[in-house]
Amino acid sequence: GQIFRLEDYKPSAYLIPGIALDFALDADETLVTARLRVERAENAPDNAPLELDGDALTLEALRINGADAPVSSYEATPDKLTIRKLPEEREFELTIVTRVLPSSNTTLMGLYVSSGVFCTQCEAEGFRRITYFLDRPDILSVYTVRMEADRKAAPLLLSNGNPVESGALENGRHFAVWHDPFPKPSYLFALVAGDLGVVTDSFTTASGREVSLGIYVEHGKEERAAYAMDALKRSMRWDEERFGREYDLDVFNIVAVSDFNMGAMENKGLNVFNDKYVLADAETATDVDFANIEAIIAHEYFHNWTGNRITCRDWFQLCLKEGLTVFRDHEFSADERSRAVKRIGEVRALRAHQFPEDQGPLAHPVRPRRYREINNFYTATVYEKGSEVVRMLRTILGEEAFRAGMDLYFERHDGQAVTIEDFLKAFEDASGRDLTQFALWYHQAGTPNVALSSRYDAEAKTLTVEIEQSVPPTPSESRKRLMHIPLAFGLVGPEGEDLAYESAEGAVVENGVIHLRKRRHTIVFKGVNARPVFSVNRGFSAPVTLCSEGRTADRLFLARHDSDPFSRWQALTTLFTDTLIAASKAVRGGKEPAFADDLVQLGLDLAADATLEEAFRALVLTLPSEADVAREIGHDIDPDAIHTARRALLETIARAGRETFGDLYEGLHDNAPFSPDARSAGRRALRNTLLEYLVLGEGTPQAARRQFDDADNMTERAGALTILAQYFHDTEDGRAALAAFEERYRDTPLVLDKWLQIQAMIPSEGAVSLVRSLMEHPHFSLANPNRVRALIGTFSMANQTAFHSADGEGYRLVADTVLALDGQNPQVAARLATAFRSWRSLDKGRREHARALLADMAGRENLSRDLADILERTLA
Length: 876
Ligand code: B3K
Ligand code: ZN
Known about the structure:
Layout: E1 4-5, E2 14-24, E3 30-40, E4 50-53, E5 58-64, E6 67-68, E7 74-77, E8 80-83, E9 91-100, E10 110-114, E11 117-121, E12 141-150, E13 156-159, E14 162-168, E15 173-184, E16 191-194, E17 197-204, E18 210-217, H1 226-243, E19 251-257, E20 264-265, E21 270-274, H2 287-302, E22 311-312, H3 318-336, H4 339-358, E23 370-371, H5 380-397, H6 399-413, E24 417-418, H7 420-431, H8 440-443, E25 449-457, E26 462-470, E27 485-492, E28 503-505, E29 508-510, E30 513-516, E31 520-526, E32 533-536, E33 545-548, H9 552-561, H10 565-588, H11 597-608, H12 614-620, H13 626-633, H14 639-656, H15 658-667, H16 678-698, H17 702-710, H18 714-728, H19 732-744, H20 749-760, H21 767-774, H22 785-798, H23 800-803, H24 809-822, H25 826-833, H26 844-858, H27 865-875
Helix pairs in contact: 1-2, 2-3, 3-4, 3-5, 4-5, 4-10, 5-6, 6-7, 9-10, 10-13, 10-14, 11-12, 12-16, 13-14, 14-16, 15-16, 16-18, 17-18, 18-19, 18-20, 20-22, 24-25, 24-26, 25-27, 26-27
The structure holds (3S)-3,7-diaminoheptanoic acid and zinc ion (ZN).
């Protein structure tokens, strides 16, 4: 396949300042008439051919300036339209008629039908499945869209921008016209046509402009859209207050569809959402669902400025909009909820998803330099690490200069398609700083490691800290340059207070941040009056791995006393991880794992500490996952040993905390009506966490069964069911609860996904055959990405012992599914295949099974470009 390279970027020889699209909507066969105003670019040669992108298209007609184009003047294939004879004038009009097949479109890219509703997904390269076009993000056009459809089947006709006109036609058909005055790239085009219910509201912007808001969902589900609407209005206000960004059209619409490849899409004025990220109420959604909805509604809305008004020059710049917008949605959630808890969640997710990517065969820079299939680069690195890079920028510049840089970026580039260099230049110009070394965060793949040691000299009152950075090699980047790593820190005194120091020498230290720029720094803090514990990378100021001398006493101390809550959690997590690594080793050596009393006691004390937020206390009791421990071990991994070790620690804590946990659990019960707010969610999170320990401590399912039966919300019901399924799936209680849940939610697909998910995580011998049998359940379908992710995605990510089962059957299950899916939905198939990315770090037997299956898949004929790319890089 063709490889696209950043250095090959060339501006287009033609521009398309305006396009009028006309859709004669019909599920089986839709005719699309596109009228393009084409302009030859300033420096383009007169005779440059016009090459338009297509994908699976049939050309019905081609007219140039209104006249049929002679057959000899062009060449049309399903994926390309090349026009060689063009008018002499710089400007001309092209009319292209294509035929597309919405109801047989299983890729969910371009125009397709989801539960009877026409909808589109164009990012990254789906517009070329609708009409031939310069389908690249630096071609900005003003769109006018006319749709006609059967009035009964599709009373609702939506597109980008503002509504202009609508009316009745013959034969029970009708039409609507929409116009979007903001020039936009084709990936932001969208239309929706169907029969849907709606929730409406309105928002008055800071400058007093009135915006009509609409959230469209399946009939009967309107009430479940209330929370999304509330989140939308809060997002709109927040962007005004925090970034000075106002909304710019008369309407803003969101449509929820049930078949969607990812979370949601930021089409201008018409966001299309996976209904999982719109629909929520106490009966059907967990607190995690509510939080995700809030974050994703915000994320897509924030794209209106970071992505839509200012977009990417090319797809290598994807992080320009994604990393920045993730940073913005993280800040929004931090402001709306608990900042500390939010940050811990972000770091856990980064480590779970981005670190393995960065440390394996699929590693790539935040701004990649090459790709074969751009859809494979919507990754944790581009999104999550991309956000961390923006966060570091703010840490380095400070809040004020950061905001000045953002303001300058908006002012300078509004209406343009730009690059990471343009973005960084705005911050350099606004702050007067040189960001050359910092820019390596965008260009260089791999997770940097920071090694650290410190010693206190009581007589001289100095703390000497030695820091060294290194970046491990990644595919096609064997030699790395030194990075600019901002490390927030504190010198924690005996009472937990941050100690003052008179001076610091050996590196730039400002406002509680060490700026690491060389390989090695020896920093001497002078005038330190007591022996401090050095607390470093507070708030996870840099996305690095840290290797510091393992003083357990210091970690126990920081977990109790650090003024930064993130660092407290980190200290505890490091202790848990280290003890689980040691215990796994013991198990593998045929020994009993043992755990230190003071660590267990620390966990109990923090969990019971009423001065801490409940959500934080829930995180304290959430042990590192099996995958977390595996990642830290890094090679020759035996998931069974890790599972046994972790289970032993859970039981040790459960026994030690039996009474405390019982009292805490009862005390958290509250009779108030359900509210999804962060505080209430935190209480429920803690209750669910405690419940698992209670059940383990008692060795009976009673407490979980009681919570399952009494629950008046999904968080408690699903929490109890998860525990019953994990530990009692082969008992009457486990079976009865699973059956009751299935019965209750028979007609609520999004909730039945949870039922699939919970069963996919059961770490039993029979896990593989259970999942295979669930694939036969009437609710399951390979055609729906939510179903596939709930069952197979969860199995591959959250059931370590079964996915990595020693006989290779877990790998085979996932490989079979990937192959079965590839023919209909390559994007989802390729995503699922990334489950194999860490195969080289497993033990020898598992490695062999994985390699054989990967090689077998890679050798198949007719693989999609998406899947072939992932398999090839994973095996390289
Ligand atoms: N921009 C979309 C993602 C599109 C993915 C295309 N494969 C959603 C988002 O990040 O906001
Ligand atoms: Zn995004």
